[in-house]
Amino acid sequence: MQGADTDAVAGALERGDALPGTGGFAGELDGVLVRDVLGRYPLFVERAVSDEGRRAPGQWSHDPTDLTNPNSFPAGHVRDESGSRRHWTLPSPEPFADREIAIEQVRNAVEKSVDAVDTDGLAIAFSGGVDSALLAARLDAPLYVAGFPDSHDVEAARSAADLLGTEVRVVELTHDAIERAVPEIARATGRVNAMDVQISLPLSLAAERVAADGFDRLALGQGADELFGGYAKVAKAPEDPRVEADTVRGAQREVIASLPDQLERDVLTLRAAGVEPVTPLLHDRVVDAALRLDGDLLVDGETRKVALRAAARESLPDEIASRDKKAAQYGSLAARELDRLARQAGYKRRMDDHVTQYVESLIE
Q1: Where is the Asparagine synthetase domain (predicted)?
Q2: Cα gap 341→225, rounded to integer Å
Q3: What order of strands is seen across the sheet that includes strand 77-80?
Q4: Where are the domains of the chain?
């Protein structure tokens, strides 16, 4: 079992509690396969028919490369002798009645979860935004940022580190590093589409450096955008065609539902690079507090992640707490430079999904 201890998982199974106070779990308990409601740990099952020399149906692993034909085990599900079924569903609590109480509950949940992180062998992935800065301000661990020298993330991380009175170690991305890392990411994750590879590149290359420097755990601010209203498509609901919900809270739940797929990719990427991810902002207590936020505490006008920013001001300078940030693949310029490499290799933008075709060529 990865993640929570077996007693906590057994209790969650018995009660049907989707948020039992853990940081997620996946594995086997007394012959039952389980994966938590947010899929914070990857789990795969063999879907191939048993043939000579191949794993039999029923085999499972946390690493898809262990299996002949791996299939991702869905988040919130269990599998026993009677088959696979959904056991946990994300709760739909009523929002906090009072704004100040809501912010205080978010602050308590975030600070308790971050402060509980063991810093032994720990480094922090640091982009200079409010999410990773909360980790940097409250944990005694070195900071790392990956990006091309002129990238937004490198500049933002350096300026935020100055404001926090510390330093950040810069992992400078190069074309050679990208070309080397792409096949490694594809093998580890089983994914070749351009977006997944672009997102994984700065994570993978930062993690390699972290591992080379002697650290085996990497803390990230993952989940904050999904939980607290950090996406434009959530802020613009219901006008944004990328979401089906007709309210900001509904759009928040839609993007939270995308976490299992994202986390699977990121955990596999980081493990392949030699580190174990640590994600305190995805602890059950933080998830529970975020689900209780009303729409105006997620988005207020042009401001996103309203409650999280307000809560963070106890730990961070206002300049950092109020900062916007770019997605890692754009802030690091990994997406731009992977596109450039694709075009230099003859995969022009007029071609269908030209970057994915380029990724596939590197694997071949």
Answers
A1: 106-239, 252-346
A2: 29
A3: 2-3, 25-29, 32-35, 77-80, 83-86
A4: 2-86, 99-334
Secondary structure element (H or E) that encloses residue 180, with its range? helix 175-189
- pLDDT tens string 85-119: 999 999 999 999 999 999 999 999 999 999 999 99
144-146-150 Cα angle (round to 5) = 125
Dihedral sign, Cα of residue 55, residue 61, residue 66, residue 72: positive
Domain 99-334 has CATH 3.40.50.620: yes
What is 253-271 written as a DSSP string?
HHHHTTHHHHHHHHHHHHH
Tell me whether residue 116 is exposed, middle or buried, using C-beta atoms within 10 angstroms of its C-beta: 0 to 12, 13 to 18, 19 or more: exposed
pLDDT digits 0-9 by tens, 242-259: 988 889 999 999 999 999
Tokens of 49: 């028919």
Strands in the chain per DSSP E: 2-3, 25-29, 32-35, 44-46, 60-61, 70-72, 77-80, 83-86, 122-125, 143-147, 168-172, 217-219, 276-278, 299-300, 303-304
In this structure, what token pair is assigned to residue 42? Answer: 């990857």
Q: Establish whether the linkage from the previous residue to 238 is cis, with ω within 30° of 0.
A: yes
Structural Rg of the chain based on CA atoms: 20
Structure tokens at 52: 């000579």
Distance CA 68, CA 268 (A): 17
